[in-house]
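Write out the 3D structure for:
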Amino acid sequence: MLFFRLPAQAWRLAFAATLLLTVDQAGAAVPSTATLEGVLTSAGGGPAADGNYTLTVAIYPQQSGGTAAWTETAAVTAKGGQFTLQLGAKTPLSAAGLNLSSAWLGVAIGSDPELARQPLGSALYAQRAAVAESLDCSGCIKAGALEAAVLQPYAKATDLGNYAKAADLSGYAKTADLGGYAKATDLDAYAKVASLAAVAGSGSYNDLKDKPALADVAKTGNYGDLQNKPVTAKVGASCGSGLVLNGFKVDGSLDCGPLQVPADAIDEISNGLIWNQFIDSVSGGQKVKIIDGQGAGVSDTLSFPDIGLAQAIWVEFDIFNSDLTHITVELFGPGMSTPYILYSKSKSGQKMKVLFNKDTAIASGDMNKDWIGKNIKGNWSLTVKDPIKNQMNGTTDGDFSWALHIQTLSSKKVQVKGNLLVDGSVKIGSDAADCTALNAGAIRWTGNVFQGCNGKVWTGLQGADGSSPGSAAESCKTLHKEFPNLGDGVYWLDPNGGSASDAFQAPCNMTRDGGGWTMGVKMWYQAGHHGKASAVGSIGDALTLKGNPWKLSDAQIKGIIGDDNNFDVMFDQANYNSQYSSGNYEYAVIYNYTATWTWAGNVKGSSTTTSVKSYRISDGAVAWSGNFQCGDVGGWGINCYNVTAGSNPQGGAGCSINMGTASNGGWHHVYMAETNTDTYLYLCNGPQHSSSYNMNHRYWFR
């Protein structure tokens, strides 16, 4: 018996474990219980108080940690600290459960933590258990552990002698030694020839019974006897001229047809050298003013040419407005009665630049469904609506610019990427299309001359030299740039390009202040073109000193100025008034004037800073430079009446800056429109005016 003490939190436990022998006389079976005796002591060392206690007992394979191999909870009664507990009363002890190399006993009292584990020793029954009464293993008994005498009743050497002689085994297996054990007469009863099937004797397939049915090809070996044979081409067959093989028909004949290449595959079959897919663009209005507080909005229209079928379509849009949350943008395509809503009050801020139907979805409508695979030729109109009045001091609120882009599968043109080498001649057709940005760089044959498109006008390949309507230049400025050796004179111009039917003649000055000036207005005593936007007079009138008035139309002058409305204007006089000048008369230039040109009313003041220079005709020297206050005053055109920067003009009679006021009745420094029966140009050499004298005033644009 093992006896020891264990410390506890409030207890100490001493106990002894005894394995009781309750031996069955018939079988000496191992009991499934064990008795545990112990003593409970208090923390002070005396016996614990009498009473009932709950103990949890567990057996572990290790001293600490791990999982219990067996555990049980039971109530014990202590008297004088002593108690007895029957282990296994609830959870029987088993040999399998206690198959441990070492065992440790753990005890917990009530809800206190488990006390330190103690090792288990052997008891009397454990000593008896050391004698094996039965084996609980398979294959664990080796031959060397067996007593030979034990096996003699089951395998006698004399019985084995006839079957395994040492002499016979030395040669491993001799036929002579087997003769006594496998004689033919002994086998007759088991393998008689008469009992064998016919096929065993003949080896012939035909002697088999219940033979499977073979396909014809298995009998003949002939390819023609196969079923479901693959289709093969008929020998000697071929497609006709201009046809290609598409496949084989069921009977093996050729399925031929014309060569068909997808319309967009020309780049693949040409190794990327020839293309018929393009991105084409047409610009709409640029910096179109938005009317503030107008529900109907401002519309701008562009015409898209016939260039092929659309594979993609999108709208480039750029807007500035004081409040985008009030803006709506609509787009009408050719023949549409209901517009696409590109944008509808969905963004805050003042600026927006997007590609509608490409990087930004449109608010309403389906442009792809309506136009992909179709020709978008025709007029497209874009409307910007600003119904809320935000600008108290003006009628407009910002501006917009737009363009229409499509990716096309063109049926009108191809692009060759690389050099084109032609062994023979190249014939150019007579393209009747207008010259626009879309076909800039094109060449055509008119039947008389070769012409090239510069993006605006068809010109002879020698250049748009202004010598005829067919070679009209965009302006005197572009003419001077392309032909710097051309002198002053009358040339054909066509600012909008396209058809030569609207080309016109105008005087060009190629020498003053860098050259490239186009004359737009000629005035002489009561000229007679008061506030007219249309053209007045003939080219002959433009060249006379007196005579009839002359001017280009506002549209022609705007074409010369350009879409950005930023231009230079030169004032001069043909001849001079000797009664007002010593002969040292001048011409003046205003630079970088930015406003929309009109002769039908006052031109607004420039939105950019301008500067002014006057030149002496006699030697071209600068007579004066500075700034005038110009625009929004007087009659028609650009009128300047007050010096805002620079010294006072000096040099001639009537040169004082205090002359005149901002009214038509006063003498302005530079005054375009005729009034008081005169026109005026007041600079340093005095008032030069036409009156009844042999002279006129002219206004040039660049």
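The mean pLDDT is 79.
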